[in-house]
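Re: weekly structure request thread

Next one in the queue (125 aa):
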Amino acid sequence: QVYMVESGGTSVQPGGSLRLSCAVSALTPNWEYLMWARQPPARGLEWVSNLNLRSGNQYYRDSIKGRFTINFDSAKNTLYLEMNNLKPEDTAVYYCAAGRYNVNCYHTWCYETPRGQGTQVTVSS
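Done, posted below.
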């Protein structure tokens, strides 16, 4: 059973930076994508970013382009989300996932790996 453990969330002021981490217990050979999703307060799940492990291609939702960067350290089996110039609308619980396909989940969890506990990011002055 694969599990993913998110960490690094905290409270930060607008314009600040954070780096989220996701420890991956194991990757199966046919899992080509790693993802980040988030759930803002009182709203449904929304896709954030995907990374293709084979090609290195990165995919981002429009509202975070140029501010967030997804990357993976294979030596540590850890996925990261570097977040800069954070805005109040980035406030959410952030989750990571893995799978075979370039999937973007909205409203409900549809990823192949189970939903973890997530890590809370709060952007507020």
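The first strand starts at residue 4 and ends at 7. The chain has a mean pLDDT of 94.
Next request, please.
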